[in-house]
Design a protein that fits this description.
15 helices; elongated; single chain; alpha+beta; 2 domains; 4-stranded mixed beta sheet; about 300 residues
Length: about 300
Amino acid sequence: MPETWNTVQDRLAVNSSRQRSRSDAAEPSLLAGLLFDVDGERLTPSHALKKGRRYRYYVSAALISEAGTECARGWRLAATEIETAVIQILTDALTNPAALIEPLGITGMPVEQVRKILGRAARHAASLERSSAEQAKILEMLIDKVIIAENMMTIRLRRGALIAGEVLLSTSDSANDTTIELTAAAAFKRRGLETRLVLPSLVQQNRRSRCDPALVKAIARGRVWFEELASGRARSLQDLAKRDGITRRYIRRLINRAFLSPELVEAILQGRQPVALTATRLSELDLPLEWTEQRRLLTS
């Protein structure tokens, strides 16, 4: 039976006790139950105290059951590093339409449905910047599993959680029950019992000095507001303005950014936008809907 938004919610309710154990902890293990090695063995949250400081890890079962023996093999990953990497990879994908449209199989959907799906994805990405409890909720809902290999990390996302109720008539009933994969090259450096994670793509991304967080946030907010209006969760621009404490004119300007071409969004996320393109300028421009005209205007 295809996985609908309701069944996702039902599964979350059934697993509420497990989620509470992650989200209510002072330092929650956000990937508890989600992290596996290539052989399908789950990595278990663990911790150690050193000089009064608590260090969190994800540890292979073999390192626990065979501790102290010469045959003990497996992973012992620093929890914060792996959690941060997963959240960053997921956030990048959720705010990148070009990375979502084809894997989700939504190219044949009506434009309004596609926009609703992309708006929902942007909303999830925004939630990943909030509290640990909110992060745990989103990761639980979206991720089927994270697989660690010697040179690769793979994140399998539940397609149904992103599509929700938007289903193509030509799509088989089982399509929503499938997963899509995000992959990232990885390097693991062993230091004693602990293994440190290095993701070259993220290192390169962190070095991009021109990536403008304010510009990225403006685009994300515009998509969220558009999706709220399109879905009926917000009745008017006035309601949004009153709730968020800003002007209707500003919201109207940013909502138009929900129609920014995927090519330009990708350039902005990678820090390749023109130097003069700032969040302020983007909010002030009368942006054409034609993607070719957008490119001409914003790169001139």
